[in-house]
Amino acid sequence: MCGIIGVTGNGPVVPRLIDSLKRLEYRGYDSAGVAAVVDGAVERRRAQGKIRNLEAVLAEAPLKATVGIGHTRWATHGAPTTANAHPHKAGRVTLVHNGIIENFAELKAELAAEGHVFESQTDTEVIAHLLDAELNTGRSPLEAFKITLDRLTGAYALAVLIDGEDDLILGARRGSPLVVGWGEDEMYLGSDALAVGPFTQKISYLEEGDYVAVTRTGAQMFDVAGKPVERAVVQVSASSAMVEKGEYRHFMEKEIHEQPDSVQHTLSEYLDLVTGKAKTNAIDFAAVERIQIVACGTAFYAGQIGRYAFERLAGLPCDVEIASEFRYRSPAVSPKTLAVAVSQSGETADTLASLTWCKAQGLKTAAVVNVHSSSMAREAEVLWPTHAGPEIGVASTKAFTAQVAALLALAVAAGVARGRIDAAQEAELVKALFESPRLIAEALRMDASIRSVVQDLAKADDILFLGRGAMFPLAMEGALKLKEISYIHAEGYAAGELKHGPIALIDEETPTIALAPLDDVFEKTASNLQEVAARGGPVIMIAPENAPDPHGAGIRRIHAPDCHPLIAPLVYAVPMQLLAYYTAVQKGTDVDQPRNLAKSVTVE
Ligand code: M6R
């Protein structure tokens, strides 16, 4: 997750860029840079490490300008060096980027064959080269920008300067957020409201696929099809950003929409898309004989999804247990067991006690936690961080997908270390994982189809969630989400378990929601749905559009993005969360602070 700021105004721009970047350091801080228009040409300054290093560079070589862009980086492609720091430059184009360009390797090969020379290992630099090539054909900046955007696969927020364009910043968003800030004879672009917070509280949130041309006096916005659009200008409070809701009604909604970024940020901790490899981490998986995951609530379901991956990809036996049970039942653990606590807060009393107990038994311990200064982060020998950022909504969303992303990436690393995954498979799995931010962004567009079913769901007293494989724990997580915020009773079941009991619950009033990605058990799930439909139960099947239709009256379909089976839990988490969210909104409950719950359960 990187931070972006752009300013086109009348006063000195560099101090303003620096002021903004300091507020954005929370998004990443392994390098930073600025670029500004100096006498018609764009110049840049970059530095490895924190913003103060960039300030030192600027003190040596100041930039006098009124138009500029800035970036603080969290490395995804290439090491955190000055050469890989943003802004990147090719010919007349200088730009900053947050996100992942999935097809950068193909584009880079194509551009290299045409004679383009690259100076960094980043995916970002290919965008600069593509845009420069389009400008060189004589196209206008906006035409060239649109053609360039259409060639990119992946997630991005961009801010672009062009030599010879003294009062123009181009911006675009897909998957990663970008806002336009409105000032007095001055305009801004930022990766969030906090970025432009020092200068203005008047903001337009760009929508998926939008691009924009910002000048001192205004902004021309276009949608994904290139049609001119206007986006509402909203007033945010001065401290808006991390701890405020911005354009969203609830923190939970905001956090659901932050997932392309938070998953990408987390994956980048464990994987390197440039090399197609899982990064080395502090655990020697070859020496581990068993994994014992302990967690509570949503984190427990994330752990269960992790188990499928550790066993399938690494052949590593993995147990997952609710921490409040584990800690009191004197479990028998073998010495070469790796104990892994999974927790958003890192403070959950039962999980912490289980971790401490494992450590006292002499086991190796690791903690997948989102709060990196928490008790679990300090207690475990190895910290495996998630990078979801602060999660305010009591119902966990982005922390869950970050936990899943971390565990899936670690399972790939374990598979490699244990000789179960060769280099080609590793590259395929790493690529699949890095597709998830884009596909999560696509899943967020299921919003309208999800809303079309919530009126019916909100009337139900009981709802069943079904799934097979890793979709089973996700079904339980979907049921937990719905229970927590809509107060509707819901249960998640393994679809194959239905006829062993729960099918007795089926009647016309009890909806069943099925998670059915097109994987090797799709047909089996589909036949379970026919069994439900045959008994008069209304069914909502969430599956890709190209999945075959299960025959049965009353089966409604909601189309989800088609994806690699490994990342299906990340992509299908989104419709689960949206279903719970909109059902709760329909029922008028307190979404962010549901009754009887606390964000962190630090007592037994
Ligand atoms: O902070 P933790 O991840 O350890 O919290 C565990 C559970 O309390 C938490 O996941 C809870 O179930 C959430 N409210 C779920 O949305």
From TrEMBL:
Gene Ontology BP term (one): protein N-linked glycosylation
Per the database record, which ranges form the SIS domain?
281-420, 453-594
InterPro entries associated with the record: GATase_2_dom, GFAT, GFAT_N, GlmS/AgaS_SIS, GlmS/FrlB_SIS, Ntn_hydrolases_N, SIS_dom, SIS_dom_sf
**Residues of the Glutamine amidotransferase type-2 domain:** 2-217
Active site annotation, chain numbering = 2 (nucleophile), 599 (for fru-6p isomerization activity)
What keywords are assigned to this protein?
Aminotransferase, Cytoplasm, Glutamine amidotransferase, Repeat, Transferase
Q: What is its EC number?
A: 2.6.1.16
Protein's job: Catalyzes the first step in hexosamine metabolism, converting fructose-6P into glucosamine-6P using glutamine as a nitrogen source.
Its protein name is Glutamine--fructose-6-phosphate aminotransferase [isomerizing]
- The record lists the organism as Brevundimonas aurantiaca
